[in-house]
Design brief:
Length: 116
C-alpha cells in the first residue's frame, strides 16, 4: 500500500504583477522586473537564485549540487553538457534532464536576448 503524499507549504516567493491581456504571440505582459523572485536574466542570478530555480522546477535534491559548487547565473550559462553530467556528480538521468530541459534553453534564451 502506498503512503500518503506529503503536503508542502505554499511557496513564499513574491507574486508577479501580470497584464492578462494576451500579446500577439500569446504571451502575457509582465510588469515586474523579477521572475519568481529572481532577476529575469540568468546572468544576474546569485547562487541561491540558481538553487531556487532548480528546486522550483522539481530538482530539489540536485539543486544542492549547484550550491556546493557555487554555481551562479554566469557560471550556469557557461556550463557544458559534460560539466552538468560529470562535474556536479549527479545521477545521469536527472543530469541529462537538467541540461537538456533547463541549462541549454536558458543559455539559448540568454544568447537570443543579448545578440541584438
Amino acid at each position: 500500500m502506498r503512503g500518503v503524499a506529503e503536503v508542502k507549504e505554499p511557496c513564499s516567493l513574491p507574486m508577479l504583477s501580470v497584464d492578462m491581456e494576451n500579446k500577439e504571440n500569446g504571451s502575457v505582459g509582465v510588469k515586474n522586473s523579477m521572475e519568481n523572485g529572481r532577476p529575469p536574466d540568468p546572468a544576474d542570478w546569485a547562487v541561491m537564485d540558481v538553487v531556487n530555480y532548480f528546486r522550483t522546477v522539481g530538482f530539489e535534491e540536485q539543486a544542492n549540487a549547484f550550491q556546493e559548487q557555487e554555481i551562479d547565473g554566469k557560471s550556469l550559462l557557461l556550463m557544458t553538457r559534460n560539466d552538468v553530467l560529470t562535474g556536479l556528480q549527479l545521477k545521469l538521468g536527472p543530469a541529462l534532464k537538467i541540461y537538456e530541459y533547463h541549462v541549454k534553453p536558458l543559455q539559448t534564451k540568454h544568447l537570443k536576448n543579448n545578440s541584438s
